Amino acid sequence: MVDSSKKWNVSLVLALIVSCILYRIIPHPLNFAPITAMALLSGSYLKSHKYLAVIIPLVALFASDLVLNNTLYRGFYAESGFIFFKPYMIASFISIAVIVMIGSLIKRSKFFQLVTASIGSSMVFFIITNFSSWIELPMYPKNLVGLVECYIAGIPFFPFTLFGDLVFTLVLFGIAAVATKRFYLPTLASSH
After folding, report:
1. Is residue 54 assigned to a domain?
2. Residue 31 falls inside a structural domain
C-alpha cells in the first residue's frame, strides 16, 4: 500500500512547481525567480522519490526555458527557427541537480536550515552558471583574468538572485508546511 502522505508530497510539490513555471514566464523583476526554491523544495519533500526530486525541477526548468527562449529571449539569438536547446542550459541543469541534493538535507521545520540552504544554493548557482558563461562566451579571455572578469560582471545580478531565492524558499516551504500540517498532523495525532 502506498503511503498517502508520500502521494500528497508529490502532488503538493508538482502544484507548487507548476506555479513556479507560470511565475517564471510572466514578467517579473530581474533574477527574482523561484527556480532555486523549487529545487530545494523538491529535494526536501520528495526524499523518498529521489529520481522525481531531480527530474521534476529539471523538466520544469527545461519547459520554462523553451517558452522563454522562443518568446522573451528570442531577440538575443542569431539563429532562426525554434530554439530547443542552448549550451547555457547545461550549467543551469547541473546547478539545479546540486540544489536538489542540498534540499534533501533540509529538515522542513528548521528556519535556519532553510535560510542557509537558500543562500548556499544561490552561491552554487552563481558559481556554476558564471563559470559556464566564462567557458561559453567569447568576450571573456580563457585565463584567470577572464574568469575573474566574468564573476565580477555577475556580481550586480547576485543580490536580486539571493533575495528572490530567499523569499521564494520561505514562501514555498511555508505553503508546504501549512498544507502538510493541515491535512496530516491531525490524522497522525488522533491515531495514538
Report:
1. yes
2. yes
Residue 65 covered by a domain: yes
Rg (CA), the chain: 18
**Which grid coordinates belong to 81?**
527557427
How far is 138 from 64, CA to CA, in rounded Å? 26
CA dist., res. 165 & res. 171, Å (int): 10
pLDDT in tens, 118-139: 999 999 999 999 999 999 999 9
Encode 30-84 in three state secondary structure. Answer: CCCCCHHHHHHHHHHHCCCCHHHHHHHHHHHHHHHHHHHHCCCCHHHCCCCCCCC
DSSP notation for 138-185:
TTS-SSHHHHHHHHHHHGGGHHHHHHHHHHHHHHHHHHHHHHHHHHHH
Task: Please give the residue range of the domain that contains residue 19.
Answer: 4-181
Domain assignment present for residue 89? The answer is yes
